[in-house]
From TrEMBL:
<dbReference type="InterPro" id="IPR006283">
    <property type="entry name" value="ThiL-like"/>
</dbReference>
<comment type="pathway">
    <text>Cofactor biosynthesis; thiamine diphosphate biosynthesis; thiamine diphosphate from thiamine phosphate: step 1/1.</text>
</comment>
<dbReference type="GO" id="GO:0009229">
    <property type="term" value="P:thiamine diphosphate biosynthetic process"/>
</dbReference>
<protein>
    <recommendedName>
        <fullName>Thiamine-monophosphate kinase</fullName>
        <ecNumber>2.7.4.16</ecNumber>
    </recommendedName>
</protein>
<dbReference type="Pfam" id="PF00586">
    <property type="entry name" value="AIRS"/>
</dbReference>
<feature type="binding site">
    <location>
        <position position="52"/>
    </location>
    <ligand>
        <name>Mg(2+) 1</name>
    </ligand>
</feature>
<feature type="binding site">
    <location>
        <position position="130"/>
    </location>
    <ligand>
        <name>Mg(2+) 1</name>
    </ligand>
</feature>
<dbReference type="GO" id="GO:0009030">
    <property type="term" value="F:thiamine-phosphate kinase activity"/>
</dbReference>
<feature type="domain" description="PurM-like N-terminal">
    <location>
        <begin position="35"/>
        <end position="146"/>
    </location>
</feature>
<feature type="binding site">
    <location>
        <position position="82"/>
    </location>
    <ligand>
        <name>Mg(2+) 2</name>
    </ligand>
</feature>
<dbReference type="GO" id="GO:0009228">
    <property type="term" value="P:thiamine biosynthetic process"/>
</dbReference>
<dbReference type="InterPro" id="IPR036676">
    <property type="entry name" value="PurM-like_C_sf"/>
</dbReference>
<feature type="binding site">
    <location>
        <position position="51"/>
    </location>
    <ligand>
        <name>Mg(2+) 4</name>
    </ligand>
</feature>
<dbReference type="GO" id="GO:0005524">
    <property type="term" value="F:ATP binding"/>
</dbReference>
<comment type="function">
    <text>Catalyzes the ATP-dependent phosphorylation of thiamine-monophosphate (TMP) to form thiamine-pyrophosphate (TPP), the active form of vitamin B1.</text>
</comment>
<feature type="binding site">
    <location>
        <position position="339"/>
    </location>
    <ligand>
        <name>substrate</name>
    </ligand>
</feature>
<dbReference type="GO" id="GO:0000287">
    <property type="term" value="F:magnesium ion binding"/>
</dbReference>
Length: 344
């Protein structure tokens, strides 16, 4: 039997590990990599940032929508974005995989390659984890990062008068999800559906790729910290929901500018118009882009690639309680403010 035809049940745990461990990168801060009882990662200033997240098959990804490389990339991206949102530089990942016995070994190897495709160029090591069998694929990822001597940038320290800015894209993953839901991934049938809808194939490919392989602006997190950002967070569950979290943590309110959001809305219209959906809703409520939302004190030069989107105001302004997110001074009219893991 060729290796490409084998499934997880055909190998022992040691054999499965041997099939993909050589594909994983070693990070710049890794002193003892995978293969021992635990990895050892350098923490030059005595602290490290740590975060964890999970991807569950048919909840966060569908295998027929993309490749194993896509899932591996996405598993890394969503965790590295959280590290960058603290103003830190990502250093390492530890990953536990739950695999049904019928999972092809080639899929597991592809997952490892996807991790390496994102992690290796930025010096992040994949430094261990665990394997288990189960009914569906689950990837549990823990990411670490170094603050390089800087203070962490928190959600709770935005102040009235600060400028709210964003780095990355808004609504692109939501557009990609809508296209995948409507027409699937690639192939002649998909292309025919897209043609009937009036969505150009190249446009659809671009947006689907953002959903399958989000590209968080990792370098923007430390850049914002060095520029004096007062608060910051990853945008994973939608602009309104995550801006609301920042506002609640800071006991303030946020007012977004529709004029500042207009370019993001326009960029989505080649998909939203043919599908009969709202580009503004995608910008406000779509998650999974994994951009960074930051606030900067008045007079601070907002570093690229951040773009101003609005302002921070004191709680009580206009009668609004802390945690409110407004659009041009009023409550935006959207079906839902963003992704909730336990809703629906």
């Amino acid at each position: 039997m060729l290796l490409m035809e084998k499934t997880v049940r055909d190998l022992s745990e040691d054999e499965l590990l041997a099939s993909f461990l050589p594909l994983l990168p070693r990070g710049r801060n890794t002193e003892v990599p995978t293969g021992d009882d635990a990895a050892v990662i350098a923490a030059p200033d005595g602290r490290y940032v740590v975060t964890t997240d999970v991807l569950v098959e048919d909840r966060h990804f569908r295998r027929h929508w993309g490749s194993a490389e896509d899932v591996g990339w996405r598993a890394a991206a969503q965790n590295l974005a959280d590290v960058a949102a603290m103003g830190a530089v990502p250093t390492s990942l530890v990953i536990s995989l739950v695999l049904p016995p019928q999972t092809p070994v080639a899929w597991v190897q592809g997952f490892a390659r996807g991790l390496a495709q994102l992690c290796e160029p930025v010096g992040v090591g994949v430094d261990g984890g665990d394997l288990s069998s189960g009914a569906q694929i689950v990837a549990a990822v823990t990411a670490h990062g170094t603050l390089q001597g800087r203070a962490p940038v928190l959600r709770s320290t935005a102040r009235p008068g600060d400028v709210l800015a964003h780095a990355g894209v808004l609504g692109h993953a939501a557009a990609g999800y809508a296209l995948l839901n409507e027409a699937g991934d690639t192939g002649p049938e998909t292309e025919a559906v897209l043609a009937d809808l009036g969505v150009e194939a190249a446009t659809a490919t671009m947006f689907r790729r953002v959903f399958l392989r989000p590209d968080p602006p990792l370098q923007a997190g430390p850049a914002a910290a060095m520029a004096g950002a007062s608060a910051m967070m990853d945008v994973s569950d939608g602009l309104l929901r995550d801006a609301g979290r920042l506002a609640r943590a800071s006991r303030s309110l946020i007012d977004l500018s529709s004029a500042a959001l207009a370019p993001a809305v326009t960029a989505l219209e080649p998909v939203s118009v043919p599908l009969g959906l709202s580009a503004l809703d995608w910008v406000l409520s779509g998650g999974e882009d994994h951009g960074l939302l930051a606030t900067f004190p008045p007079g601070t030069a907002v570093p690229p690639p951040f773009r101003p989107l609005g302002t921070v105001s004191a709680a009580g302004s206009g009668g609004h309680a802390h945690g409110a997110v407004l659009l041009d001074g009023t409550t935006p009219d959207v079906a839902r403010p963003g992704w909730d893991h336990f809703a629906g």
